[in-house]
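Lab meeting, item 3. Inverse folding demo.
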């Protein structure tokens, strides 16, 4: 393969001519941390304590002070890399990486994270990494600290953007959760709405119907019809059409079609906390069915209720408590349709329901937009790492 001008072929791939290849032992030292018992780790002491899977808690003394990289040495997450700074305690399950004078520790932390170190773990019941094996690995590195620092700065900026988006999303979710708690219980009323809420039962508002029946594995993944998978109901307030899957439904089969406005509940789960998660279909669809692990709820045409409002209500804290109390079973928990239809809860007027649902939907849309931005930021950082850490793109 022809190598472009200014680059050279090495044992670790094509790199810039002025870069070098060295074993990790030539640019850093690695040493396991110290032993510590769980009795000496708590949540209120001064110094962070890191183990093989990251932060374990806090302790009263520290083993290191400065900037280092930590590699998980044992456990399910062995090989994960974490950059740490300040005074901290490193347990024996973490490998502490100290940069030698020719290497920048922040740049090295990104390099180690890109190396998928878990592939070098010893095959055993408890996966583990050998320090002697790690330090013998070859890496390509810029010969000047200035270029290493520039790369680290660019990637750190990308990390800062990702972290700020994560924090903003977490804050928006908390705000939405608080809004749900207040608006869906009537603790806070929107301007222009007053008066007592009317107590209703689902049985007064609509009726239930079942999902697909009589299907085998061969029917799924093919055919012109679509069905709403279990996780589409579990994970979403509003059914996502791009998450529908194919199913073969033959002429003459007695199956229930899903229509716009239907609500869906998962009828069983391994935990009572997940029983009765609710989602609503807000789009016009053709030839769409429901999976057999869920059941549908179709509102009466004259029912004084907004389907989106009901979906939010049954996913709220108060709605979850109502459905949690209905979960039956020991190893697998089931939701009784009869019990669901007899539930009693306060319901505002349709106009107030729509106003509340609109506010919550707008909040969801804002969170979804931020999540899309976060996904792009993570992809951008990954692309930057692939280009900058190999020298394909130079900053200096």
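The presenter then showed the designed sequence:
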């Amino acid at each position: 393969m022809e190598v472009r001008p200014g680059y050279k072929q090495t044992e670790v791939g094509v790199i810039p001519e002025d870069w070098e290849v060295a074993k990790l032992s030539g640019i850093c030292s690695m040493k396991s941390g110290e032993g510590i018992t769980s009795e000496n780790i708590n949540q209120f002491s001064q110094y962070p304590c890191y183990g093989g899977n990251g932060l374990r808690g806090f302790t009263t003394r520290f083993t290191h002070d400065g900037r280092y990289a930590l590699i998980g040495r044992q456990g399910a997450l062995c090989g994960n890399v974490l950059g740490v700074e300040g005074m901290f305690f490193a347990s024996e399950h973490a490998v502490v990486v100290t940069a030698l004078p020719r290497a920048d520790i922040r740049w090295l932390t990104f390099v180690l994270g890109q190396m998928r170190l878990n592939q070098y773990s010893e095959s055993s019941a408890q996966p583990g990494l050998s320090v002697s094996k790690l330090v013998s690995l070859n890496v390509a590195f810029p010969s000047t600290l200035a270029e290493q620092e520039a790369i680290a700065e660019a990637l750190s900026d990308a990390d800062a953007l990702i972290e700020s988006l994560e924090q903003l999303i977490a804050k928006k979710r908390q705000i939405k959760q608080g809004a749900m708690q207040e608006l869906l219980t009537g603790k806070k009323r929107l301007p222009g709405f007053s008066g007592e809420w009317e107590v209703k039962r689902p049985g007064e508002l609509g009726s239930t119907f079942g999902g697909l029946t009589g299907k085998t594995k061969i029917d799924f993944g093919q055919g012109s019809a679509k069905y709403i998978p279990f996780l589409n109901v579990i994970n979403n307030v509003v059914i996502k059409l791009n998450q529908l899957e194919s199913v073969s439904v033959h002429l003459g089969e007695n199956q229930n079609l899903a229509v716009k406005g239907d609500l869906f509940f998962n009828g069983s789960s391994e935990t009572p906390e997940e029983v009765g998660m609710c989602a609503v279909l807000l789009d016009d669809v053709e030839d769409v069915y429901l999976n057999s692990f869920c059941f549908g709820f179709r509102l009466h045409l004259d029912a004084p209720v907004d389907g989106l409002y009901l979906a939010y209500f049954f996913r709220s804290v108060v709605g979850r408590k109502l459905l949690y109390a209905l979960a039956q079973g020991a190893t697998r928990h089931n939701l009784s349709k009869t019990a669901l239809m007899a539930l009693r809860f306060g319901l505002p007027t349709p106009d107030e329901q729509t106003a509340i649902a609109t506010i919550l939907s707008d909040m969801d849309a804002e969170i979804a937009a931020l999540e899309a931005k976060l996904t792009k930021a993570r992809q951008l950082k990954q692309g930057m790492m692939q280009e900058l850490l190999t020298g394909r793109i130079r900053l200096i």
